[in-house]
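Okay, is this right?
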Amino acid sequence: MTYQNRAGLQVAAELAQFIEAKALPGTGVSTEVFWSGLAAITDRFVPRNRDLLARRDELQAQIDEWHRANPGPIADMGGYQAFLREIGYLVAEPAPFSIGTENVDAEVATMAGPQLVVPALNDRFVLNAANARWGSLYDAYYGTDALDAAPATGGGYDKVRGAAVIAAARAFLDSAIPGWEAALTGDDCPHEYASKDGGVLFTHNGLHIELVIDRDHPIGKDDPLGIADVVLEAALTAIIDLEDSVAAVDAEDKVLGYTNWLGLMRGDLTASFQKGGQTMTRTLEGDREWTMADGASFSLHGRSLLFVRNVGHLMTNPAVLLADGSEIPEGILDALVTSLCGVHDLKHLGTHRNSRKGSIYIVKPKQHGPDECKFTNDLFDAVEDVLGLPRHTVKVGVMDEERRTSANLAACIHAVKDRIVFINTGFLDRTGDEMHTAMQAGPMIRKAAMKSSAWITAYEARNVQIGLGCGLSGKAQIGKGMWAAPDMMRDMMVQKIGHPKAGANTAWVPSPTAATLHAMHYHQLDVFAVQKEQASQPTPSLDALLTIPAAPLGHNWADEEVREELENNAQGILGYVVRWIDQGIGCSKVPDIHDVGLMEDRATLRISSQHMANWLHHGVCTKDQIDAAFAKMAAKVDAQNASDPLYEKLEGDSIALKAARALVFEGLSQPNGYTEPLLHRFRLEKKAAQR
């Protein structure tokens, strides 16, 4: 890697070129101001960053010692909480307050709907996510198992399935906007609507439903009302991810992610790809123009409102070297560079707008407690100062996915109270941290049992109640986690209604199609009305949240149960790691042990690796049993990927296989059980071998 000196920092040449030739022009920020600003930020914040990480290790060591002295499930909850307060793990609750965030776009503050998360390194994927604001209900029903009807047959359009799709869409319209037909027949319509040539637009629960009218269309010509499609406003927001769903280990990777984010902020990102033997080019959708019955015209935003997820406080990156030769904390670099890209949107330098309120939206993951949230708030203050932005232009989404944050959530929100725009539950990472925090308590219960454990129920409910108590409703998002099975839309439609019912005004989905289907849930009920009802409900106790998922003392599993658990974990680890290490794919649909495609990222990897490490540490299994599980599942994963021409088998001295084993056998020593340090190490080794 070639470096260039910038304000005493050694900056990778490709990053310097990106900043100076692409990201800075037009922003009003000079090259000198940017680099000197980054240098000053590193001088100020790198020592604090290191101190916060050291504090994590100090607390973990104290908790480990307590569990060694008090093995098994918590027997004295009062004594346990007193210990956590004594060491500073639990802090005092702040006095009642409401967040003061201003200039928040409606998609975040006053609307409720699905949210997409997409890897920043894939230009086609990020364009698909940005364009998922509007989706065809006909297509979503026709192409998935959400429709309870016979699958399509033959190579062309199946009229029988098509008729079932139209009937299902009509049933949805009848439920959401009874009497909607009157808007098309000239009768008195009980709903306000807008129209244009070829379309009628309704609004329900703050979301829009468009009826596409085209009597020349293959579908519309046979429809009594000429309806060719029903289009739903779907993914109101999308997160362009630089963290868990990407494999970004050096300057080359970071510049790719930054380039795509800048293209979105400017509106000029394009992606070309081959489909059906032809070259296709994808761009951002424009806004949608409408006319009311009284002749007044208006436009609707054509794209999802975009967040960018920076990395957390742990990882460093060789894209910039500090004066002492050490790598820059990656989250510090992300904060300044992604905000700089956002200035292009604020200054209207491109062809499309993201925020109409003049805000830059950054998601900050994997923070442990209010001190780390305070660090983020101060860092964003400093970024705004370098870029000449008004205070609190840079908004923050706090992911509630680490145990110390969950236990101190109100204090965490208070630390960023004037810039916070979302909290959400990430139960996968949260489970990984739960296991690592209580690693010395004893063997954990089986993974499948985790989902119904007391702490998860309390965690999900406390997140909503604390968010409502801090005044997030009407100002910010309260979100829920991902539906991980993109091919199981029928199950999603049954289960994911639980998220808006719980008071969440957004929840993650794995694809634009899933966003269209999940949008129907927000027509079934008014989330903000639910939030008003729930605001007076009690917050589940801290006792339930801190009930660790350790098995009872002396519990033994049958040999077959141990084998099943190890193989399930090993298969999940290998299926994800082999793509991460060998191909640099940070998130994809990976077949599980039953060949069901699941969206996997580092959060799921953290659970599986920590669970195996826990059972090994406590003697539930042996090293030989784990190696046997890896050997058996390597053959299965190889078979599952046999059709991939880029796939390399998991055998011999495979770097991916080494990485998978290290995640388990070095699992106890990994900071908070995170997988990133080992993944980065082995990915860099693989990239070096490929050169």
